[in-house]
Amino acid sequence: MAREAVWVEGQDKLFVNMDGLTADVEKAARRGLQRAGMRIIADAQRNMRTAGHNGATLNATGQLSNSGKVQDGENGTIDVGFFSTTSATGYAAHVEYGTKAHWPPRWALRAWVRKKLRVPENEADAAAARVSWGIFKRGTRPHPFFAPAVKKNQNEISKAVADAVNEVTGRNK
Fold first, then answer.
1. For the chain, N or C: smaller number of CB within 10 Å?
2. Quick one: 34 and 44 in the same domain?
3. 1 domain-assigned
């Protein structure tokens, strides 16, 4: 089969405009993903307040809820999740999926027992030790809060990106 080359007058300007459009579409898609990510964080925080053990909150101290973020990731990704700012890294995963039996750090349990169990300051260490012993023997049960929020918002993620791209390309007019 023979090939023909066709030169379009103004082709160089067209490619420059398309490059600009590509960058605008990428920016719009990122904004859409960030908005969808904020909805996921809000729903996950709502799940923390309402879906704990026996209806109790998963957010006794507020540290887990406050660690929810939408941030730029590597290679142009948008990362949505609960990122620890303390040395209790992985706490969100421990709550979401539960844990096997292990020795948790007693210092991490101290604030929790004070707030959640309403233990006075002078009894917090002993209460934290008892909770720590229970986790050592049995581990912890899973309390999913993030995965249900992502699942709930799956259609919204696609829609947010499509709406943002359509806004730039003028397809929603």
1. N
2. yes
3. no
10 Å CB burial of residue 113 (0-12, 13-18, 19+) is buried
**Entry pTM:** 0.72
Q: Quick one: how far is CA 144 from the chain centroid?
A: 13
pLDDT string in tens for the chain (173-residue length)? 444 433 445 545 544 555 566 777 778 888 888 888 999 999 999 998 886 544 455 667 778 888 899 988 887 788 888 886 555 557 888 888 888 998 888 887 888 888 888 889 899 889 889 988 998 999 988 989 999 999 898 888 888 878 877 887 776 65
Q: State the CB neighbour count (10 A cutoff) for residue 82.
A: 22
Q: Verify that 68 and 149 share a domain, yes or no.
A: yes
Quote the tokens at residue 46. 């709502």
Cβ–Cβ contacts within 10 Å for residue 3, how many?
4
CA–CA dist 116, 106 (Å, integer): 15
Residue 68 sits in the same domain as residue 24: yes
